[in-house]
Fold:
Amino acid sequence: MAMDHNPKDNRSLMSRRRFLALGSIAVSAAVFPRPALSYLRDTRHEEKLLAFYNTHTSERLNVVYWVQGQYLPESLAEINYILRDHRTDQIKSIDKELLNLLFAFRKELNSNQPFHIISGYRSPQTNAFLHTNSSGVAENSLHLIGKAIDIRIPGRPLSVLRNTAVALKAGGVGYYPKSDFVHVDVGRVRYW
Structure:
């Protein structure tokens, strides 16, 4: 028994397939959202500036670390120094994506205030000590590899910092209101 084949049925089948494919893409986008546009925005021709205040050493830094599409090695060295482990004086290169996240964070908040640093890079010794004495410190913390920072900004409620970091969808966000800081990192997107 031969079946008649209607070309219109083929087109509708393709349309349904296309529709289902687009639907699965839309569901994926909702389940796995992309970072906020401000984080992805092309800033090749813009200067990127960050300001820090180290709450443990009272050191300050206000530095342009990116100009015309180039990172400035001297500025990165200054950032690495101010974000060093203040307990051991060990310095580690801070991940550039973390710096770019902080830059995006600053722009989202429209803030000129320095980030108050609670913790930047942590040496293995410091992290082990803190992990032993606090349930809030991960054994394999991203602080160990320069991909995390604990901060606050003067005059900004901690809840606003947390909500801004969450909206950027660029990594992990930890909220520590009792200790008065927000943790941000460039690991996988997660919140606690």
Observations:
- Residues 80 and 93 are 6 Å apart (CA to CA).
